[in-house]
Amino acid sequence: AGAARVLRSAGRIEVAPAAGGYDSLVVFTHGLGDTAEGFSDVAEMFARQLQGVKFVLPTAPVQPVTLNGGMRMTSWYDITGLSDRASEECEGIVESSNILRKIMDDEHELGVPYDRMVLAGFSQGGALSLFTGLQQPPEKKCAGVLVLSGYLAASKKFTLSEAGKTTPTLHCHGTADPMVRFSWAEQTRDAIVQMGAENYELRPFEGLPHSVSGEELQVALDFIRKVLPNVPQKAAQDMSMRELKNAITRAGLGNKAVDLLEKKDYVDLLEKAQSEAGKKSSSSGAIENTLSCGTLARLRRAGPVAARQPSHATDDDPVFCAELPGRILTLRAGKGPPSKAA
Length: 342
Description:
Elements: E1 4-9, E2 12-17, E3 24-29, H1 40-49, E4 53-58, E5 62-65, E6 71-74, H2 93-109, E7 117-122, H3 124-133, E8 144-148, H4 162-165, E9 169-174, H5 182-195, E10 200-205, H6 214-227, H7 241-250, H8 263-284, H9 293-306, E11 322-324, E12 327-330, E13 339-340
Parallel strand pairs: 3-4, 3-7, 7-8, 8-9, 9-10
Antiparallel strand pairs: 1-2, 2-4, 5-6, 11-12, 12-13
């Protein structure tokens, strides 16, 4: 555990250890209408609690969403109706899945093994993580899949791979979710287990609406710890030149290695960074209690909003527009722009 560095670029946020590099990856995808910023604070908090883990949070492409009258918004795929998404085509989901695979492949090129990668996401992002992670081929099997308030999307396009059958999968879902109903989560679990999944757990959270809670995030953090256990890092002097260069790149030290020629210089640079990282970690002592400070305050403020639906919404006429943690945006056909649910 220790400090984290945050890099923001067009369409992506990266949260990595401040120094010393990383050997594991978590790709976290947001819900409909949100951006990478939606879970950046959670990623930063998790990164401080984990050792050697990098978080990549991509932002979905902007595209029309049929359910919202063709309104353009960030979306991993199209949504056409208010029922569960398993029977929908979810146009764009394959392309978005390839975005996640490209992130994984790029990190693998830098030396991160696929079995040290976790795909995670909230709502539509959770569905995308499930769709991607459980279809990975054996040589690219990931360490785990974490689904928060998600579901199985585009079941006709989904085939559980042999690797996916044994991939640890944790599905956390609120029992009071009015947008992605808990029954959808149960149907998702049942369908995937029937396909042959051996390691799929659905964890209900009583009374939780379409949001996240401190308890749920603690469970999520524990799951990541379980599937990405700490492993002894290879000593710098025992690394090949390629491993050294990749480790230096992952540590964000590429600009300091431009003029280096000898292997000893690369080793010295990496060992210095690792030493500084160790000092920061040990000096931090008892870091903040997990899920404390501003994040829990934000969740406490957001929770009541997510628990309420507009007075005109009923089970037969639900309102659905965006999947933001703790916030329900609503849109009625021909009624103007979205507004927050009161």
